[in-house]
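Render this sequence as a predicted structure.
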Amino acid sequence: MAIGFIMQFDNLSTAKYDEIAKQLGYKLHSNGNYPLGILSHVSGKSQTGFFVVDVWDSAEEFGAFLEGKLKPAFAKVGGIPEPKVTTFEIHNRFPA
């Protein structure tokens, strides 16, 4: 079952987000080179920081990405605040 993640980073700048993407080897605004298991990803600046909303095939695939790639990228970039994370099971997704 697909699972959604809402990650809220207080005081995270767009520049820091872009640097994390660079560390991961992702070209912004493209459709290539994304991790196995991700179904969608959106992100943007809020009044208090930055939001990331992902949909993954499974929590296990997200967990593998988090431990194997995302946390190391956070460490290389440095100064990344601990996000508030909300998870939810996907009931409906459009487009499917």
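Summary. The chain is about 30% helix and 30% strand. The CA atoms of residues 3 and 89 lie 5 Å apart.
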